[in-house]
Amino acid sequence: MIDDFVASADALDRVEDALRKAAAEEVMPRFRQLGAHEITQKDGPHDLVTVADQTAELHLERSLTALLPGSVLVGEEGVHADPGRLAALRGDAPVWIVDPVDGTRQFVHGEPGFCMLVALAHRGEVLASWTYLPAKDVLAVARRGAGARVVGGGELHAGVPEPGRELVVGISHHDFTTEAEKRALARLDVPGVRARACGSAGHDYLSVARGEIDAVAFSWEKPWDHAAGLLLVAEAGGASGTVAGEPFRVAGGNALPFTAARDGETARHILALLAGPGRGVPGAAG
């Protein structure tokens, strides 16, 4: 059933419709309209959640699981309430991996660079993904083995960085990193690399897939932040990997940091810097 669903253009269009509807009903009416009582903290002053995050995830859980009977949803807000829901990523049921508002801080501040992220995975493999920027009306879709595209805008091709040009790399924001993670990411502070903090992981993955930046380097593994973007970059011709030289696993247990880049050579270069002296050059997967 899962293979037939992913192969069906009509089924994938219905996912797009569900995502757009959740944005129209739950997210965009609250954009730049949030009251103070609609914004709360989860695990600290930088980890915000809004009523839009919560209601959009519930909306998507109803609509997406109805599209694919037997599927379940693993989302940021649901897992925060019940961490046991992560176990579904290791089960046999198809899993919708959802971040209802990726870049909540941007959303709260009225900035348009936030995303809604949906990925469909089965037994740890991401099969399709949707990256939606509702404030910019940009939707990127990827299907494993079938490429990546912007709806209404054509195929995505990450390409390769221009020789001799400084590499632009989006990295974990310092507010969300430990001292050890800061030290690892600081290894990117070398000539030829310009690292800058990421606001929305989904937005930066799309920027890699479009060739607008050259790579990302992240130090956390929450699957809803990465599943959609990693497939998007891969299907646009990019490459990714962890400092252990292994593919990133959405079910967890990854060596960190990891990278996704426009091409394999760039990914290997970033991984070598992240790994540090004497640890060799890890591999990267397309």
UniProtKB/TrEMBL annotation:
Keyword vocabulary terms for this entry: Hydrolase, Magnesium, Metal-binding
Record-linked InterPro entries: Inositol_monoP_metal-BS, Inositol_monophosphatase-like, Inositol_monophosphatase_CS
Enzyme class: hydrolase
SUPFAM superfamilies from the UniProt entry: Carbohydrate phosphatase (SSF56655)
Signal peptide: none
Protein EC: 3.1.3.25
Segments passing through the bilayer: none
Keyword Transmembrane helix: no
Swiss-Prot/TrEMBL catalytic activity: a myo-inositol phosphate + H2O = myo-inositol + phosphate
Classification via Pfam families: Inositol_P
Superkingdom of origin: Bacteria
Claim: Ligase is one of the keywords in the record: no
Protein name in the entry: inositol-phosphate phosphatase
Organism: Streptomyces synnematoformans
